[in-house]
Design a protein that fits this description.
about 300 residues, alpha/beta, Rossmann fold, seven-stranded mixed β-sheet, 9 strands, globular, binds thiamine diphosphate, binds magnesium ion, Acetoin:2,6-dichlorophenolindophenol oxidoreductase subunit alpha, oxidoreductase, PDH_E1_Alpha_Subunit, pyruvate dehydrogenase (acetyl-transferring) activity
Length: about 300
């Protein structure tokens, strides 16, 4: 026991603070959400991963409701029952799951349903590069290829699955190369730039909507805050940490350098976003916890 506890001192008390349990931050991966979700329409369906907040915000889901859900409050998307990994909004055709690669089947099913009903929507599943090694991923990709489903799998490649590197867990460098096995189109973006991602996602959606079959779109990105907040990432080599990029800063600089916006316009956009988040935090803190009497409402019992 003593040997086990050596160097395993918890960095934080998991029950403490405003957010019950841990939280998997999307910081660093914002470009993946903005560059892909903005290509989608209201008719399309999204299943997001256990790190779903950037995707949910890009889909236009109310930040106040997201924060209430994260804090387990009654005003949350699912009245506080889902928590930070399980964000759901029927109106936005959006859900997410703590089980990695879980969204593959539902997104492919929504793609099939949409085609059968002639609604023209596509199904998009978001997951991390490590989740691709889950058996369900391969089963669903295979059937999506067989049925030529209007389905896109967006892989956010941050190079880590908890503390295991992509090289240590995955036989090939790019998961998009797996597309050949599933009669799919494979695309890779290595810039973490929203414009580049938007362009490739546009190509992906045109392909999927045309009836040619599924697409695997892998995006190189960075997990800036570790697997979950409080993870000191000692296992990440120092040179890799030095190469980490924050796409929000890079994109702001790009827009300013290209003369799309001025520095002061950028500052005011950032200030507006901070205000919106501060207001949402305040709203969530003041929101009530779910009433214990409703504990069984909405559950399968
Ligand atoms: C089926 C299943 N197995 C294991 C886990 C535990 N788990 C949670 S996140 C994770 C790694 C995910 O890595 P990746 O898919 O690259 O996503 P990232 O965390 O990097 O965004 C694992 C193994 C899980 N949630 N579900
Ligand atoms: Mg990963």
């Amino acid at each position: 026991m003593e040997l086990y506890y050596k160097d395993k001192t918890p960095v934080f008390d998991i029950a403490a603070g405003l957010i019950p349990g841990e939280i998997h931050s999307s910081h660093g991966q914002e470009a993946c959400a903005v560059g892909t979700v903005f290509v989608l329409g209201q008719e399309d369906w999204i299943t997001a991963a256990h790190r779903p907040h950037h995707t949910a915000i890009a889909r236009g889901i109310c930040v106040k409701k997201i924060l209430c859900e994260i804090m387990g409050k009654a005003n949350g998307l699912s009245a506080g029952r889902g928590g930070h990994m399980h964000l759901y909004s029927k109106e936005h055709k959006f859900c997410s799951s703590g089980i990695i690669a879980e969204g593959m089947g539902p997104a492919a099913g929504m793609a099939l349903a949409s085609r059968m009903q002639g609604k023209g929507g596509i199904g998009v599943c978001y997951l991390g590069e490590a989740a691709v090694n889950q058996g369900a991923w391969h089963e669903v990709m295979n059937m999506a290829g067989v049925y030529k489903l209007p389905f896109i799998c967006v892989i956010e490649d941050n190079n880590w699955g908890v503390s295991v590197s992509k090289a240590a867990s995955t036989a090939i460098a790019r998961n998009s190369d797996r597309a050949t096995s599933y009669n799919a189109l494979g695309l890779y973006v290595d810039s973490n730039d929203p414009d580049d991602i938007y362009n490739k996602m546009t190509e992906a959606t045109e392909y999927a909507r045309s009836g040619k079959g599924p697409v695997i779109l892998e995006l190189k990105t960075y997990r800036l805050q570790g697997h979950m907040l409080g993870d000191p990432q000692h296992y990440v080599p120092e040179e890799e940490k030095l190469a980490f990029r924050d796409c929000t800063i890079d994109y702001k600089n790009k827009l300013v350098n290209e003369g799309v916006i001025t520095e002061s316009e950028a500052d005011s956009i950032i200030a507006d976003i901070k205000n919106e988040v501060d207001e949402a935090v305040e709203f969530a803190i003041k929101s009530p916890l779910p009433d214990a009497q409703n504990a069984l409402t909405g559950n399968f019992v």
